[in-house]
Fold each of these.
Amino acid sequence: MKRVSILVVILMMAFSVNAFAKIGVLNFQEVLKQSEAGKEVYNKLQTQADEYDKKLSDLGNEIKVVQDEYAQKESIYKEETKEKKRTEIQRMIRSFNTSKEDYTKELKRLEMRHLKKVQDEVMKIVTDLGKELGYEVILEVQNSAVLYMADSVDITDNVIKRYNKVYKQGK
């Protein structure tokens, strides 16, 4: 009877050890904010966005100049000239709106392309880290609906350090 009790206790301990998986949690947004590659991607996108904003600002200023000119001279313009100026202003506004939409789409496309590259690189690091450290599951905080996590399962800083190391070696 004593042997059976000891065997049951040993089996229960063995099953309880295996019942708990080693779980890690990664905050990909933090990797993007803090890693060198993520900062570089952000700076590239910001530079491109600033360039597009400058172009839109220039177009907006051109429209304003033409609108101001029209407002000042409207009373002396012939009806035919008024119609031409209004048509020109409308064309300029349509061009502005089209450019704005195009720039927005282009920025989104660039963002997706750069983020995909970073995500692929981070996934390789996470996979290697998971295997190396014996994690059975690694969750991403934003997409996994993690309601609570202990600090001990957060591997974000570890991933950032490794990613920075890999990124520096690749340069």
Amino acid sequence: MDALALVLIFGTRGLVPLLIFRWPFWGGLLSIAADGFDTIIQDVLGAEPLRGHYHTADKLFDTYYLAIEAWVAFLWDDQLARWTAVVLFAWRAAGVVFFEFTEARATLLVTPNIFENFFLFVAGLRTADPAWRVRTPERLLGIVLLVGAPKVLQEYAMHYRAFQTWHFVRDEIILFWKV
């Protein structure tokens, strides 16, 4: 089962993000789904193919798909959106590197992954209307606050409080419906 889980995890996490190049918004959403898929696969198959190295592999795969999103954002012609995305990605990447060396969980709270939500927000609007642009610094600030607040709460729950989202969904929501 470990070999099957490994193939499914590496295949999904490695290939799905490539969709971001063609369909930034939908590829980004599918990459988030693939991120959750690996834990589900391990639970369903009762496998642990990475034997204690899951966290490192997960962070590498996350950085891989976020780097693809950052590359796509770097090609946007909207300068406010482009440079905001680049700065948000760099801030998160620096935080992840610092965390990997120090294992200080609060680091991920201080460097939340606002980039991902910002990218999806802009890519989603650009999918609906290719002419959409951020246009003003005030609009940019509003967008960053809008997409950043839920991400900071998620980072607090997942990385600072070590709350496992999938386990909550599995144990409290899915099992609730089975009763």
Amino acid sequence: MQAVILAGGKGRRLRPYTTILPKPMMPIGEKPILGIIIDKLAESGIKKIVITVGYLAGIIEAYFGNGEKYGVEIEYFIEAEPLGTAGCLSLIDDLEEEFIVTNGDILSALNFNDLVECHRKSGKKATICSYRKEVPISLGVLELDGDEVRDYIEKPTYEFNISTGIYVLNRSVVDNIPKNQYFDFPTLIKKLISLKEPINVYKFEGEWFDIGREEDYKIVLEKYFNE
């Protein structure tokens, strides 16, 4: 099994930290988040990893090298120009028949083997790992009936099924991604939907944090150092 880790972003939401560090190198304890992801992949028996890099790529390559000290084989795909979260996949050589794609800033308790098993059992070409996320609204929300107020909800919390930024894809899905063009995962998923290609979902219920969001990063740091 092969994994592609998307690590080329500039991490604008984490500035000024990411002016000197690429986002996937943000530290959690003694390891960068990317190192934790690689360890989890290795523990799941996934030994072949492609890391897509762009912004401050040299720091990532110098730190992880060929992956030998992590028990994996690491190759790098260098984006000369930003290609979006999915655009790089059409240019990576030797993708396996099925592979995992994960953002390089996700911390979760996900079992990758369970995700892959769900994908295979579905018989579908694409699986999105989803998460039930509570989103608080810090404002009063009005429910209207025409020009009349039907209800007033003060600072409600809503729940949504969100993408965790982790996927399993069959190689044939990559045929839908144009070469050398900016193309992100939402665009790819919408294209598959328009083609009436069924998309599987794996509903993950454990801990999940997007380290690219300062709020999540602070929660993780507080949790880590208080354990």
Amino acid sequence: MSAEPNRLPIMPLPIVIADDSLLTRKVLTRALSEDWDVEISYATNGREALELYRAGRASVMFLDLTMPDMTGSQVLDALQHEDLNTFVIVVSADVQPMAQERVKALGAIAFLAKPVTPEALRPVLKEYGLHD
């Protein structure tokens, strides 16, 4: 008689999509692989994104830079002061090299141009072991 080892249930990966545009949130959601076991939360501004992060709902955060109330750069700065322990992928229409350098200096793991495609997203997720 062999006993099964105690196994913890595999939980979906909590992710936050933070963008003030409903259309962009939908496009990004569709760009995620259907077989990726995630629990998605949405934020329409930076303050909401931080609240979701603090509630443990953001192992991965997709973050727009230009949002009302609190910008993506301000969110990154706050996360850095709270010992950033989430993978932040900035998704922005501002594709200037200076913007990309700034967000990476603030702890973002990647910068993707809008609109995000599965082909652009997949290598980033794979590189950080977030998805096969």
